[in-house]
Write a structure and sequence with these properties.
single chain; mainly alpha; two-stranded antiparallel ribbon; 2 strands; 72% helix; 2% strand
Length: 326
């Protein structure tokens, strides 16, 4: 098998195996349901309509995405090394670097699929949130109950459909449910565009806050270095210590600038700052307050920063895997 074919085959297999893990499905559904419930439970707008729904959705995206990324990346490699599957694959004409990078590519696909669902749920949640609405029939604060109901029902119907497919065709429940929930969110997003906030048919318009999109891209970019770190650590550690160390790096990255101030100009201390990624570059939801926006050039620079860090961590992980006893 040629290296390119082996890489894509291993990446696809890794993505499928990650989607079949019950914890990944539970985290995805938990993120969607909590994001959907937030606008229905809020009692105050705190000065800006949709602000709490928007920030709660982005926070769920970041926290649940962190757990999905680390869990999928750590178990994808550690489990196969422990069970001997990695040794069987590496006995074929498949290099260790190809095997390691393919595992990360599969996990990255799962993380991006999760992020697409989380961003769709956040966009819909912000639309559902109570807002001042004026129509020929009424004027006042109004919740988009129709969209909110669809957003809550979609995961339930998707899980039921996955159960039916599992019973009739023996389709793996976990991966089928994950993909059906994602498809359900997309259907709700498209269908809701045909209705206004009062539930009346109207001209096709998504009526969502598109400013959330760059914030979601930034969070997705932050999850990929964490996936790379988890994959690299799992070459030497089991899943539990990998989760612990990734959580520690996440907390340090959030607090590093608070503890030590802005990055210093001296080369030695600047190198020290580069050891821990600054997650504050990716959590900029405050920029959306009061009608603000996140410039796409800033998003591009942050994505480049994440890609550079991801590449460096993967290089170290591939080097470590070359000397790992499988």
């Amino acid at each position: 098998m040629r290296p390119g074919h082996a890489f894509f085959a291993l990446a696809k297999l890794t993505a499928v195996e990650a989607l079949r893990q019950p914890i990944v499905l539970l985290l995805f559904c938990g993120c969607v349901v909590l994001t959907a419930l937030t606008p229905l439970l809020l009692l105050h707008a705190f000065g800006e309509y949709g602000k709490l729904a928007r920030e709660s959705g982005l926070a769920c995206h970041f926290i649940f995405g962190l757990l999905v990324a680390v869990q999928a990346a750590s178990s994808a490699l550690a489990r196969e090394v422990r069970t001997g599957t990695a040794a069987a694959v590496l006995s074929k004409p498949v290099g260790r670097t190809t095997f390691f990078l393919a595992k990360f590519a599969g996990v990255a696909c799962v993380v991006m699929a999760f992020s697409i669902g989380a961003v769709l749920a956040t966009l819909l949640s912000e639309r559902v949130a109570e807002k001042w609405t004026i129509t020929p029939q009424l004027a006042g604060n109004l919740i988009d109950w129709r969209t909110g109901t669809w957003l809550l029902v979609a995961p339930v119907l998707a899980l039921a459909a996955a159960g039916i497919l599992n019973y009739l065709r023996r389709a793996p429940f976990g991966s089928a449910a994950f993909l059906l929930v994602l498809a359900g969110l997309l259907v709700v997003f498209l269908v809701s565009a045909a209705y206004d906030r009062t539930g009346v048919r109207a001209e096709f318009d998504f009526r969502v806050d598109w400013r959330i999109l760059p914030a979601g891209v930034l969070i997705t970019a932050a999850l990929l270095p964490l996936s790379a770190l988890a994959a690299s650590l799992s070459t030497r550690l089991a899943t539990a210590p990998t989760l612990l160390l990734c959580g520690l790096v996440f907390v340090l990255g959030l607090l590093w600038e608070f503890w030590f101030g802005p990055a210093p100009a001296t080369p030695a201390r600047a190198w020290l700052y580069s050891l821990v990624p600054n997650w504050q570059h990716f959590w900029v939801s405050d920029a959306l307050t009061g009608g603000g926006t996140i410039p796409w050039p800033y998003v591009a620079r942050a994505v480049a920063y994440a890609a550079t860090y991801t590449g460096a961590v993967l290089a170290l992980g591939a080097l470590a895997f070359e000397h790992t006893d499988v």
